Amino acid sequence: MHGGGECPLAADLVLVLDISSSMGFLTEILDRELDGIVEEANRAGRSTRFGLIPFVDNYRIDMTGNLASGRVHTTSHGLRRAVQYYRRNYTGTNRNPGDGISGPAKQNPLCEENALDALHAAAEEFPWRSYAGRIVVVATDDTFLENPDNYGDRDSDGDTSSKDFPTEGNYPARRTLSETVRALRDRNARVFSITRLAPPAASDKTAPRCAGDRRLSRSAVSDGWSTPYKGQPPIPEQLGGRNYDLDEVRKGNLSLSRTLLDVVAAGGVCALAGD
User: Fold this and answer.
1) Of the candidates 4, 16, 109, 189, which lies 20 to 30 Å from 95 by C-alpha distance?
2) Secondary structure of 130-194 in the HEC alphabet?
3) How confident is the model at residue 8 (pLDDT cuts 50, 70, 90)?
4) How far is CA 16 from the centre of its chain?
5) Can you say whether the dihedral through the CA atoms of 210, 216, 219, 220 is positive or negative?
């Protein structure tokens, strides 16, 4: 018990965000709502720290925060500015965040996105506090590939040098699903996802769509999140979380702010040490 009185909650929350062009609407929602999310997450004695890992075919750990050499954000201003930066420089151009600002544009030949490597990085590279609840929220509109596949090899012929649209590139999948789950479990991290439950209906003209090729079937967009992936249970099911419907967020029927705050409340623990 925490010394009497109301128990302050501590939570570390890492946002693992697909920033491909079809996900622009989510970064716009985050931009509007992050001030309220951060303020409310830290209300009533809660201590919440945020991390940000954007990904497409590779990932980048955001290093613009105000703590832990930039890996940790505690202010909404800094976190919102980071989300704006990635949307402006990567989402509209389909540039991979791991390539940096000078990387090639329109470099996303397959619809599947590299969530596994980004999640593994969250487990291994974010400075988790020993006394805080550890939460990862991943948002994406597609499934993923596993090592030894390559996100830049659109026709799976082992060559990644084709320059006709959509341009190929060397973007190997470095992790498997089981490796990623093990790394997150070893850190006692709970994983929540915000993903598609099914491909967008042809009648829904407002739904963003992937314009590239696919390695897995169109119906596999939910695999690993709300449905099994090659016989393995969904990631949130394995790691004490749950999946939320991305389309309901897009349509405004599910509040992104409320969802993230509910996740923080569920994952926070009594702080037994100072910050």
Assistant:
1) 189
2) CCCEEEEEEECCCCCCCCCCECCCCCCCCCCCCCCCCCCCCCECCCCHHHHHHHHHHCCEEEEEE
3) low
4) 2
5) negative
| pTM as predicted | 0.94
Give the separation between CA 181 and CA 187, rounded to whole angstroms.
10
**Nearest to 225, CA basis, from 217, 236, 240, 214:** 236
> What crossing angle do the helices spanning 24-41 and 256-267 adopt, rounded to 10°?
50
Rounded CA-CA distance 147/170 in Å is: 13
Domains and CATH numbers, the chain: 9-270 (3.40.50.410)
Task: State both tokens at 230.
Answer: 């090659």
Cis preceding-peptide flag for 166 (omega within 30 of 0): yes
Largest CA distance in the chain: 66
Per-residue pLDDT tens over the stretch 21-47: 999 999 999 999 999 999 998 875 578
* Half-sphere exposure of residue 59: CA atoms within 13 angstroms, side-chain side: 26
Distance between CA atoms of residues 268 and 133, nearest Å: 5
pLDDT digits (tens, 9 = 90+) for 9-27: 799 999 999 999 999 999 9
